[in-house]
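Running this now, will post back.
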Amino acid sequence: MTVHAFTSFSYSYLNRARVLAESLRRHHPDWVSWAVVTDRCPQNMDHDWSDEDFDQVLFADDLFGETTERWLFGHNIVEACTAVKGAAAAHILKSQGCSKLVYFDPDIAVFNPVDEMLEALETCDIILTPHQIAPEARSSIQAIQDNELTSMTHGIFNLGFVAMSNRPEARRFANWWDERLRDWCHDRRDIGVFVDQKWCDFVPAFFDNVWVNRDPGCNVASWNLSHRRLVIDDAGQIRVNGAPLKFYHFTKLGPVGDTMTDRYARDNFEVHEVWLWYRDAVAAATDPRIPRGYWHYGQFDNGVAIPDSVRRLYRERKDLQAAFRAPFAVEDGFYDWVRAETDLMEAAG
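Update: finished.
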């Protein structure tokens, strides 16, 4: 019986996924790793997945069949790459020999084995990691706003990581997760939904044998740096509050990530060193043939970008879904209908 691991991404995140895959291979060479890809290769790029550090590749079409494009049209890139996670988990758990399943976001890197969690899955069925494992001080207004209030909006648990056994309770969780994400994986904070994360606030209430992992070396990120200090010991091992660094979540690589990391790492120079390593690793893994921000499903087939307002209109109108079965294709008529019947294209600029 084998541990399987998967991540979900588009081609614009292939560079990050490569860093994750290499780090997984280094620390867990016996795992079966899966790339779940909600995208199509850029036309100018002849990409061979056998050259990548993944054992298996799963495309959205493999999970959703002939409904794939109609379903994807109702999602932006973040929603889509998140919404496939439940279906992928349920699919992989059916794979021969899969005893345990671990999900990592593509912008995570693994620094040490996660053997303790694998051992925990012998008795528990689902493992989650919370955004924070310690409360902010009452006087730390900025940290309360950045961290605790943000978690109240986006979800208590960070679903950049989840692990599960291949037992009935975990399979029940995966099937429920798939159902919710097929219908409700959207950024709709106005109704209390933020992709998959807010749904998983229910997990400890809906399912048994759930372990909330509070290891400070797991899922280290800008949202918990106010309570986690990195040091490099005499053996060259990175430790977090005394525990080995298991995996770091390098969310929002760029100005936003830099701002939040600077705000909470402060003089913890080891954090900045880890970020520098990651920035260089991603740069080395970047293929210049992939346009910045590329996503095949980001535009109609005439190259015009699809506004989120148009996606929302289509997913909320069953009559439009029935009338326009190939919404990305201009010849199918949805593009012309939107331009004729609404001002959504013009409003988006």
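The chain has 14 helices and 14 strands. More later if anyone needs it.
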